[in-house]
Amino acid sequence: MTTYSSRKITQRTAFTFLTLATVITVVPVLFIIIYTIVKGGGALTWDFLVQFPSQAGKAGGILPAIIGTFYLMLGTLVFALPIGVLAGIYLTEYAKDNWLTRLINLAIINLAGVPSIVFGLFGLSVFVMAFHFGLSLLAASLTLACQALAMVITTSREALLSVPREYREGSLAIGVTRWQTVRHIVLPQAMPGIITGAVLAISRAAGETAPILIVGAAFLLPALPTSPLDQFMALPYHLYTVSAHVPNMPKETVWGVALVLLIVVLSFDILAAAIRIKTRMRK
After folding, report:
1. Is the pTM of this model over 0.85?
2. Which of 28, 173, 210, 278 is the most core-located residue (most Cβ within 10 A)?
3. Could you give the CA distance from residue 199 to residue 266 in angstroms, rounded to a whole number?
4. What is the pLDDT of residues 20-55, one digit of tens each?
5. Tell me: domain 73-282, CATH 1.20.5.320, correct?
6. Dihedral sign from CA coordinates of 198, 90, 92, 164
7. Where are the domains of the chain?
8. Dihedral angle at the C-alpha atoms of 93, 95, 98, 104, nearest 10 degrees?
C-alpha cells in the first residue's frame, strides 16, 4: 500500500468518526426540540400567551413569566456587556503579559465553571442583603450578569484578537493614539463577534433557574413589575414550579411553558448564528 493510499484511508476514517460524533451530538438536540413541540404545541394559544396565570398555574396564561424573562435578559445585558467588553479590551490591548494578567485569565476561566447555585448564594449575600436591593428584578439581573461576565469577556477577547495586527500597526504609524485605534479601528471590526457572545450569554441567562430562585423570582404575581426593585416571574422558575410542586397540573400546560422557554432561547441562539454568518460573508 502506497503512502498516498494510507493517508487517504486515514483521512476517510477521521472524517467518518467526526461525522458520527456530529450526528451523535445533533440527534438528541433535535429529538428534544421535536418532542417538546409535539407535547406542548397544543397549549400555545393566544390566551396562553397574553393572560395572567390562575388556579396555581393550572389555568390562564404565562404573560408575566414571558415579560419577566425579557426584563431579566435586558438587565443582564445592560450590566454584563459594558463591563465584559471593557475588561476584554484591557486584557487584549493594554495589559502586559505578567503574573497578574495570567492570574486574571485564570480567574475568568474559573468563573465560567462556578455552579449557578453559587452565583445565586453570592447574589443573595451581596445584592439582596448587603446592598439592600431585596428580592427584586435588579438583584436577579446583577446576579446573572456576574454569571455571564466570563462568557462576555472571553468572546470579546477572541473577537478583538481576531482583528489583524496590521490594522493596529498602520493606525499607530500615522500618529493615532492607542485608544483612538481601539475605538475607531479595532472595536468596529470586532463588534460582530462581541455581539454574538453577548447574545449567547443572555440566552443562557434566560434558562437559568437556581440563581433567580434565590434572589427574587416569584411563582404567582398579581401584576407585572413596574420597578427594578419589584419581584418578577420568569419562565424557567415557573416551569420548575408547575412541573414539580403543583399537583394535578395538566401535562400539556407544563410542556407549553417548556416550549415557550425553548423558543425564547433558540431565538437568541439563531440570532447569534445569523450575526456570525453575516459577518463572515462581509469579510
Report:
1. yes
2. 210
3. 11
4. 988 898 898 899 889 999 988 888 888 888 888 888
5. no
6. positive
7. 73-282
8. -110
